[in-house]
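Murein transglycosylase: structure tokens wanted.
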Amino acid sequence: MAKGVMPLADPVPATDAATEARFETWLAGFKSRALANGITDATWRRAMADVSYNPKVIERDRYQSEFTKSIWDYLDSAVSPERVATGKQMLREYGPTLNAIERKYGVDKEVVVAIWGMESRYGEYRGTTAIIPALATLAYDGRRGEFFSKQLIAALKIIQNGDVDEQHMTGSWAGAMGHTQFIPTSYEAYAVDFNGDGKRDIWSNDPTDALASTAAYLARSGWTKGQPWGVEVVLPQGFNYGLTGKGTTKSPAAWAALGVRSAEGGRIANYGPASILVPAGAKGPAFMIFGNFRAISRYNAADSYVIGVGHLSDRLKGKGPFVQDWPRTGKPLSASQKVELQERLTAAGYDTDGTDGKIGPNTSKAIVAYQRAKGLAPDGYATLELLQTLR
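Answer:
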């Protein structure tokens, strides 16, 4: 799919002597906050010795893709045959370690490996950006300054604790680190030393601590052993799409009474309260999701990501591809088209609570209200067809 970029509100500042001087002044001021949060002067001086403003990080933060992938294109990549095959190889290669992690934390080893595959292609792409300069630059920039300030302090604490030194603390431009891409505050809260070497090392070629830390994260996020993330379902003719979405929960038996059935056949066991998701609208597959969907979403809240992890883990367990087809002739809205959709919905009396170009709960709710008013299937799905009806 073609890619373009849409500049956000502010231009990327040039890296000149004045910018660097302002950055150095900001660092000097931030030091007092770091020391107040338990960072020693020695740690600060060591970690900040070679830190300078990184304009490439700001460029990545300020610009977003104008064109977005459809969920089916995303899942084709996330759960590619190559990724499934490599995941099965990793399950064999690290079998004893993964079994021990599963016993300790009660999280399916296939889910842990799926996250590993999604986050870094099983450790192949862990990121090479120096974390401290990147976080310092983002904290200074101010667009999400408080968030990145907290990440910077957490990263300094990790160095101070001796888990890794500043030279080896590398990751993505936004501060995600290691095999399973922990941000520093999540690392502080959930990372574990599973191999007993005295360090919670998620950066080295040995993925043991990273995999165990991911399992610990999911366990603390409410993972229930023996429960699926979700199951693909078939909705009956005339189904009320107003019941879809995470805001409506029913037992599997109650959904069955409404005609919802497993796409693979058979009865869906009572895994607790469940919701129905239609991530590509009424024309695409439907899923009954359970509590473990929410646990995975603590790692990354995007529904496409959670479905990707869940489906990849299912494939690693030997299950097949999706039963129902995705509406592949549909084209996802671009970022500017999403803004236009929000503007037109709001102007028509269906308030989206802002026009940020992101289809979140408020926009989906507005779409549902509009669809109901127009006699359309109220699936809350943003399409070009929907936008055209508003023009």
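The beta strands are 5-7, 63-65, 129-130, 170-171, 230-234, 245-250, 261-262, 274-277, 286-289. Confidence is low (pLDDT under 50) at residues 1-10.

Cheers.
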